[in-house]
Specification:
This protein is an alpha/beta fold and about 230 residues long. Helix content is about 50%, strand content about 10%. The protein has a 5-stranded parallel β-sheet, with helices on both faces. Strand 4, helix 7 and strand 5 form a beta-alpha-beta unit. The protein is globular and about 60 Å long.
């Protein structure tokens, strides 16, 4: 079947069908988030980040492959804006020189739903070959995976199925990883007593910068009229 032949068989989009799908996805992903196991591993992960970044002067290095890599990058930028220096390291580029971003007092946060992503498992070996004992926090959907077995701390998503109709596309899994990232970010903010004034110093532009300065009473007259 050619592309034109296939396009001729695609029916019009049904608003009712989209609404039904939306309700199903909202319900499934809400249940998946609620099912994320709460454990002491979160306190251990936050302590590792606080110890290595805020006490020793290292940084958080996040990484993931594919969709997980995009979530890892988002987590890194959110940590940066909330007072915890972080960078995202692409696992493939790490094998071609970017591994040099690592320093002895860093801590890594690695994302892999399967827990056996080759590039991420190899990244742990490369990182620890450079700095033996480098702590690694893992977010995964497989608690008994190869990656979990070599992690310092494993944060298990709960492994809920993807809402993708094929059961393949990262959808629910990336949602849960994002939420776990939020838990780590907010917990670290609380641990270091991060304030609106601290936020304003790191986020000058846009609405959020203006809102942060309003909270601290440091907005400019022009901003006050916006």
């Amino acid at each position: 079947m050619t592309r034109n032949d296939k396009s001729a068989t695609i029916p019009p989009v049904s608003p009712d069908g989209i609404a039904t799908t939306m309700r199903q996805i909202l319900d499934a992903e809400a249940r998946a988030i609620a099912s994320i196991p709460v454990s002491d591993d979160y306190a251990r992960a936050v302590e590792l980040i606080v110890e290595h970044v805020h006490r020793r002067g290292g940084k958080l290095v996040t990484s993931g492959m594919g969709k997980c890599g995009q979530i890892a990058m988002n987590i890194a930028t959110t940590f940066c804006s909330t007072g915890t220096p972080a960078v995202n390291l692409h696992p493939a580029e790490a094998q071609h020189g970017d591994l040099g971003i690592l320093q002895p007092d860093d801590v890594m946060l690695l994302l892999s739903n399967s827990g056996k992503t080759r590039e991420i498992v190899e990244l742990v070996d490369l990182a620890r070959n450079l700095y033996a004992g480098l702590p690694v926090i893992v977010i995964t959907g497989k608690a008994d995976s190869p990656l979990a077995s070599i992690a310092s701390v494993t944060l298990f998503t709960g492994g809920a199925p993807e809402v993708c109709p094929l059961g393949l596309t990262p959808t629910t899994s990336t949602t849960m990883m994002t939420v776990i990232g939020d838990v780590l970010v907010v917990s670290c903010m609380n641990a270091i007593a991060f304030t609106a004034a601290d936020y304003a110093l790191r986020h000058h532009g846009g609405y959020l910068g203006s809102a942060a300065r309003r909270k601290t009473g440091s907005e400019t007259p022009s901003e006050n009229h916006n």
